[in-house]
């Protein structure tokens, strides 16, 4: 039993205590009530501190009265550093702080329906976070406003993902328009080249045949055989040139070797042809003789190599290129490295980097991963990893 005891001494005229009066009160129930309240408070705090969301109590004017461990983790401050501060003291800017303060004033005066409020804060380490606060009113038993209870959620990654998704959609729309433009330009160039090349070839061939016919119809047939043979040789040369042009155009549209021999020989041919055309020391290395990702997969990897080599010509100013295709466990690894001028990686995600965007889309279709390593004057290295079980 718990008791509260008070004693009072009764003194005589000489000041001596002659009697004592003691009052004993049984406070067992009160002690149990206090212990129960303390235990309930501990359970409440334990519960609040185990939640993954930041929780805070704020007075009607925006001063922080209480916060849990998750709140401190989100904002990066210790409790003693942030308690009793204003909720807007850690806003991203003066304008943001004013916006938060005005909202607190509006809520206090107008009493709107509780709802989410999004703001940007600065953590102790200087990093910027986006937070969502779901709040409600906090009244005492007499209905007087004590303040607000807020649940804080870090939505920085969500906001970044949303922004990236919007940028990706914008990039894809621009890529589609760009690809359509390129397609039309290629068709125009192809039509012009076919007209110029084959128009001249066929005109020359027609002229030669006309000369042969004319010579054959001459009454004077002396030396006719020599003239005919010369015209025939010239026509054969022109025809040979036309055949080469046709093969080149067909190869640029889709190399036959990719369908006939497969990915590895086609990639090797691409590298060797690259060296012959541009006088750049390009080498090819592979740890398998043959390998296939299927028609679409082979085409995608071939185009990746082709685009990477095109980028070397357009941008790198390199003298050496190494192309590697290796099979390791359940992945195909592609690497294209040059010793060119490199670039700043912060420029890589520019919305008009259509070549890189197209390459990334090809890799994503194959459920693969693409990484680019580059520094100014240190060359560029493209690394692609594609799961084989595609």
Characterization of the model:
With 390 residues, the protein is of the alpha+beta class. The chain folds into four domains: 1-49, no CATH class; 51-154, Beta-Lactamase (2-Layer Sandwich); 159-253; 255-390, Histidine kinase-like ATPase, C-terminal domain (Heat Shock Protein 90, 2-Layer Sandwich), CATH 3.30.565. Helices cover 51% and strands 24% of the residues. The protein contains ten helices and twelve strands. The chain has helices at 28-50, 69-75, 79-82, 94-110, 156-217, 224-253, 256-260, 263-278, 294-316, 354-365; strands at 3-11, 17-26, 54-58, 64-67, 116-122, 128-139, 145-154, 281-286, 320-328, 331-338, 369-374, 380-387. The protein has a five-stranded antiparallel sheet, sandwiched between helices. It has a five-stranded mixed sheet with strand order 8-9-10-12-11, covered by helices on one side. A two-stranded antiparallel ribbon has the order 1-2. Strand 9 and strand 10 (331-338) form a beta hairpin. Helix 8 runs parallel beside helix 9 (294-316) and helix 9 packs antiparallel against helix 10 (354-365). The mean pLDDT is 82.
């Amino acid at each position: 039993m718990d008791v509260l005891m008070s004693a009072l001494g009764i003194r005589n005229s000489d000041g001596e205590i002659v009697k004592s009066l003691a009052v004993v009160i049984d406070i067992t129930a009160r002690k149990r009530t206090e212990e129960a309240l303390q235990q309930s408070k501990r359970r409440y705090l334990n519960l609040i501190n185990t939640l993954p969301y930041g929780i805070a109590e704020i007075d009607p004017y925006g001063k922080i009265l209480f916060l849990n461990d998750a709140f401190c983790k989100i904002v990066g401050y210790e409790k003693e550093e942030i308690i009793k501060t204003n909720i807007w003291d850690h806003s991203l800017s003066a304008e943001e702080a004013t916006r938060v303060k005005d909202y607190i004033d509006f809520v206090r005066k107008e009493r709107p329906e509780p709802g989410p409020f999004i703001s940007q804060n600065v953590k102790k380490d200087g990093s910027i976070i986006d937070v969502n606060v779901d709040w409600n009113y906090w009244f005492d038993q007499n209905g007087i406003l004590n303040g607000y209870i807020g649940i804080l959620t870090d939505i920085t990654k969500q906001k970044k993902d949303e922004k990236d998704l919007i940028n990706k959609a914008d990039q894809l729309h621009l890529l589609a328009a760009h690809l359509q433009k390129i397609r039309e330009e290629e068709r125009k160039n192809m039509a012009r080249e076919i007209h110029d090349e084959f128009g001249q070839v066929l005109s020359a061939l027609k002229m030669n045949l006309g000369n042969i016919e004319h010579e054959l119809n001459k009454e004077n047939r002396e030396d006719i055989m020599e003239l005919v043979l010369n015209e025939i040789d010239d026509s054969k040369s022109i025809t040979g040139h036309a055949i080469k042009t046709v093969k080149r155009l067909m190869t640029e549209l889709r190399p036959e070797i990719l369908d006939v021999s497969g990915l590895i020989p086609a990639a090797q041919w691409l590298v060797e042809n690259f060296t012959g055309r541009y006088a750049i020391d390009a080498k090819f290395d592979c740890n398998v003789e043959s390998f296939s990702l299927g028609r679409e997969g082979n085409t995608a990897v071939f185009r990746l190599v082709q685009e990477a080599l095109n980028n070397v010509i357009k941008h790198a100013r390199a003298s050496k290129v190494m192309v590697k295709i290796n099979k390791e466990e359940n992945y195909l690894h592609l690497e294209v490295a040059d010793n060119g001028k490199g670039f700043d990686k912060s420029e890589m995600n520019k919305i008009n980097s259509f070549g890189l965007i197209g390459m990334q889309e090809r890799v994503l279709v194959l459920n693969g991963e693409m990484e680019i390593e580059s520094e100014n004057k240190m060359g560029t290295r493209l690394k692609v990893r594609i799961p084989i079980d595609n």
